[in-house]
Amino acid sequence: MKTICLKSVDSTNTYIKNLPVKERVDGLIVVADKQTAGRGRMGKTFKSDGKGIYMSFVIKTDCAVSEAVVLTSFAAVSVCRAIEKVCGINAGIKWVNDIVYGGRKLCGILTEAVNVSGDKAECFIIGIGVNVNEEKFTDDLKDKAVSLKMILNRNVDKEKLLLALKEELNEMKVSCFNDKENFYNEYIKRSVMFGKTVVLNCDDIPAEVIGIDKNYALAVKYGNGEIKKVNSGDISVDGIYGLGL
After folding, report:
1. What is the average pLDDT across 229-245?
2. Alpha-carbon distance values, 163 to 34, 54, 221 (Å)
3. E strand or H helix at 80
4. Is residue 188 within 8 Å of residue 216, measured between CB atoms?
């Protein structure tokens, strides 16, 4: 896999989007020591001060743009595998794009489609930010975020973790669409969502998570018995990120 290493960049996802089309090759990885404008979903910022891993990965596939949530879910499993391989801890997945440990965010994933025409894209960019050697977070984040160093009480070798991430992402690129069942089963095993009370940003009404289907849509049940499937959007989850719903 071709890898571009940068000292500092606004965002690794943005950097790839600004490359000429011929340079956005399948499997390209861009890694930065720092991001000055790291981004998450819904326009949120992602702290990128140099102590974590900030990377983006290009994948070319004929899957529909509407299936970006599936790619995000595959990537979440891959990140959990890499963290477990290097650090020996079992991280969980908060639907749809966060890796969590002990109710706090350890990693964020942002998948973006490039040059969309109809429901197809030239490629997808999967941005990954992992909190690695941060020792503490600001007051507004201390109940929401955690790093591998804080979990393990020691520094983590970023290069070793980066190598593991590359290996898992390459394996995902090669096998995920031929191995959907195993990825799905592992995603379900690692999910922290089942039985949780959640509030969807679209209706602000508490509901219980009752399932995640094979397209990675979240199934929730409201107090009146109504069941709804959610394919995308922002949610608040009871007991995660310091929230009590």
Report:
1. 86
2. 18, 13, 41
3. helix 68-87
4. no
